[in-house]
Amino acid sequence: MMLSPQLFCMTTALTLLLVTCYAEKECIVSGKGTMATQGQQGLPLSPDIELQKMLQSLEDRILQLERVLILTKQITEYGGKLFATNGKSEDFETIFHTCKNAGGFIASPRNEGENNAILEFVKQFNTYAYMGIKEGLLPGEFLYLDNTKVSYTNWYSGEPSGRGTTTCVEMYTDGTWNDKKCNYDRLTVCEF
């Protein structure tokens, strides 16, 4: 660990004082001393403290904005993920780029709670939503957009039924899924 020059000087002075007191076996200063002169101005506030204050301010602002978005029903949270919508219906490719440009991904439910979070928007806007799930090279095999196998499903009875002809997945207003062609306009829902 490297000491700053000021800290080194203070540590050295204190060490010398203690060594001298110990050697003389007397460290008690008695009587009235002389008035000290005004010392130099101390160091400015540590940059670490300034950064901590700035970070806290940003965190407070983000929490405030999240509350506003929750109030307007454009954002919901589940399991540490944020799900958001702009309320627009677009084709799959446009939704993909909209979410990517916002720093997220098309919402991809990996459990019932996440499915329900997306369902809130589907019900609110009374329209179906695409999810970040597509059919793989093998008909009937569905993958998340990162090419991992889908671990949670909520297919509508008899679905998926496209077998290679409908490669996207939409969520119905009851939360169940259907495989669908990717060129229809569906609600934009992103996850962050």
UniProtKB/TrEMBL annotation:
Check the record and name the PROSITE patterns matching this protein. Answer: C_TYPE_LECTIN_1 (PS00615), C_TYPE_LECTIN_2 (PS50041)
Cleaved signal peptide residues = 1-23
**What GO cellular component entries does it have?**
extracellular space
Where is this chain primarily localised?
secreted
* Coiled-coil segments on the chain, per record: none
Keywords of the record, alphabetical order, are: Disulfide bond, Lectin, Secreted, Signal
Domain of life according to the entry: Eukaryota
* Pfam families, per the entry: Lectin_C (PF00059)
Q: Which residues cross the membrane?
A: none
The compartments listed are: Secreted
A Gene Ontology molecular-function term?
carbohydrate binding
Matching entries from SUPFAM superfamilies are given as: C-type lectin-like
One GO BP: ossification
C-type lectin domain ranges (all copies): 78-191
- What is the protein name stated in its UniProt record? Pulmonary surfactant-associated protein A-like
* Originating organism: Alligator sinensis
